[in-house]
């Protein structure tokens, strides 16, 4: 496939980076970008050695400044609902990826951009990051899952404040409310993100996937159901070679070499 709106690079063995590439439009998410992003994730997952996925924006101004307003402006209700579904599908595909996915947020991360970042497992931010859900200033609510993912990240009260004011928060404020996990100098963001991805990639792939699913389940299920799911996945992991390798390596006082089997 030709990815005209994205760069896809393997930064380190198994560590893949998708860079949104519409810097002149501050990486605004139009239909083509959303569809290519979806295809790119599937393509990367099909690389057997892929371990971690990073998503960032090209240029030094933006991760993504939202869904493409020019493309949306004249849509009717039916078309808008359909466009929303395209975005929703891509966001859900990221969330349910077999790979850990980290958003590296450089600059503006607004509307659909923030919704994209929140579909990732977690967010690392540059010190110039600006987050927000300014949809209400355009006369609409969020359309790519922001009303559901933001409260899960920052709690309902803070989510309501951000959604109702439409105001932006800077990297430090985003850190304080738990929207991003770390803030780095902009020039270091990519390198630090890759370092964290390398740390993650050393761990057992199936265990990582179980953790990811369990964290997501915690938002939607009773603690009883979530803990039952944890027991099930814990049990399942004892049927993997990586469990044997991980625990054997510990007793042999060496580093485990996980294969994903
Ligand atoms: N869509 C399309 N183009 C955009 C967008 C966008 N979201 N954001 C920026 N651009 C374009 C500008 O039009 C401009 O293009 P040009 O040079 O051709 O005029 C270029 O990017 C640079 O932008 P600015 O000149 O405005 O740069 P500034 O540094 O002056 O300002 C801002 C940067 C503050 C980020 C400003 O561009 C801005 O406010 N952008 C819009 C932010 C926003 O409101 N985002 C939310 C969009 S709504 C949304 O995401 C809903 C998601 C769900 C959709 C549901 C489907 C129906």
Automatic annotation (TrEMBL):
What Gene3D superfamilies would the database entry show?
2-enoyl-CoA Hydratase, Chain A, domain 1, Lyase 2-enoyl-coa Hydratase, Chain A, domain 2
- Any GO BP annotation: fatty acid beta-oxidation
Among its keywords, does the record have Lyase?
yes
Q: Which GO terms describe its molecular function?
A: hydro-lyase activity
Tell me which Pfam families the record gives: ECH_1
On the tree of life, the source organism's domain of life is: Bacteria
Q: Which PROSITE patterns match?
A: ENOYL_COA_HYDRATASE (PS00166)
Cite the entry's keywords alphabetically. Answer: Lyase
The UniProt entry's sequence similarity note says: Belongs to the enoyl-CoA hydratase/isomerase family.
Name of this chain's protein: Enoyl-CoA hydratase/isomerase family protein
- The organism encoding this protein is Pontibacterium sinense
